[in-house]
Amino acid sequence: MQIKIGKVIQRLRKERNLTQEQLAKFIGVSTPAVSKWESGNSYPDIELLPLLADFFNVSIDKLLNYKIDLSEEKVMKIYKELESGFARIEIDLSTEEPKEEFRQDLESVKKLSNMYIEKYPKSYLLKLRICSLYQMYSYKFGKSELNDRVKETTNILEDIVRNTDDIQIKETALIILSNAYCMLEDYEKAELYLNMIHKSIGDTSVNLAMIYLKQNRLEEAEILLQNKLFSNIFNISMDCKGIINVYKNQYKELKKKLENRNFNKNAIEREMEYIKNKLLWYANLSLEIKKMLSEDKGAFFSMYVDYMELSLIFLFFNMKEEAKKALYSLKEILEKYPIHESLDVSQMRFFDKVESKNLYTFNIYTNLLIVLNDDSYNELREEPIFKDVIEKILDMEKMLKNKE
């Protein structure tokens, strides 16, 4: 392996606006010695490595810079290779296990993932990308193997958190790690890792936009604020879904109390109605914001997911006709804006300065079919609209496969 410690020292020195003479003085060596390190004519003595690492506040691995750090371009190339492998695997919806003819493909992509991790053990960006794929395609492993694969990713992610110097990689790993422990129902660890993420004092984007305005950098301000608004739509949606789940649990608890004669039945029923109305209000709030800003381009904000979740909420409250209407809206969105087609966010009036790129070929149709296979839909399974939605999704899934 090629050692590039001299180039690393030179880069770190320049980042700190130090001269070779100043660095030499701090470390206790001659200026020519530093010059030789940076030119590659010699290396620092091994006993100086911890001192240099501490001085620059980096790990010794980073300082030595063995060919362990892949370029972002190379990482993305590997990521897309693995992602396309996962995307090809088909699931048997009746068992939620990989179809028999795709089991070998699954083993191949797992082996390939492990090979890359072993080949580049210190490329934390690559490890992070692979773990994100494992989480995104977790259902492709099937129920029987899911927990083992999730546990496997927690080990890799914990290694990233312990060893990377890159704050962005570390904090992204913490988010994925928290999600993984939620999947394993270890909520204490999920909370622990989420609380390790650095909490910003506040969002500086508005302040930065005001500075741009003062400098007459109008387009930069517009780009910044449009991107902030775009991301906030998804944040609002996630917050609404969280609140909806809170109210669902409260409603279930009240339902249990109805069976207990020690409680006032009328008071509980009034409270249940109040919670039901609030829950439906939050469900519609997220949807209405998306409808208004998307200008009838619902696919941009994953509105097919909102309509599916809305249908489940209506079924939760035994509102069958309303659930059917939500499925009609879902079918309409799928017909107008197929999920697999490339979407250009800048086509929308409110977000003409926002760039959005599809990094993966994720087959959302399979996920929709898995959700529709849930027992919650048993009451609608024989309804024409339910069958129409299933047929539409299957047709579009075929179109996606033909496109590949």
From TrEMBL:
GO terms for molecular function: DNA binding. Keywords: Coiled coil, DNA-binding. SMART domains: HTH_XRE (SM00530). Residues 9-63 form the HTH cro/C1-type domain. Residues 244-271 form a coiled coil. SUPFAM superfamilies: lambda repressor-like DNA-binding domains, TPR-like. Signal peptide: none annotated. It holds the Pfam family HTH_3. This is HTH-type transcriptional regulator. It comes from Clostridioides difficile (Peptoclostridium difficile). The gene is pezA_1.
